[in-house]
Specification:
about 50% helix; alpha+beta; about 90 residues; three-stranded antiparallel β-sheet
Length: about 90
């Protein structure tokens, strides 16, 4: 069984420290509190079975690699769509 600090657990799973602390307080994660150098440090106990069952932890899925030009074109289409939507909303309130 491996132990991680709250911060390292958050970095590993790309979560905020706040969300990890909420999971700890609600009992969704097994923890162990140890006193080191006069401070209490909370360690999260990692178990592979628990890691796969936890629904709040999203697995890192390999993204398909887009070229920079494809990403820019996609973003430009989204911006154009949002501009049209804003224009429609402005006309509705006028």
């Amino acid at each position: 069984m491996k132990k991680l600090t709250v911060k390292s657990y958050a970095l590993k799973h790309k979560l905020s420290v706040f969300n990890v602390l909420k999971m700890v307080k609600s009992g969704k994660l097994d923890t162990e509190t140890v006193e080191e150098n006069g401070k209490e440090v909370t360690y999260i106990l990692l178990d592979t079975n628990i890691e796969t069952d936890n629904k709040e932890i999203l697995p890192i899925v390999g993204k398909s690699r887009m070229t920079l030009e494809e990403e820019i074109n996609k973003l430009n289409r989204e911006v154009e769509f949002l501009r049209k939507e804003i224009d429609l909303l402005k006309k509705g309130y006028s």
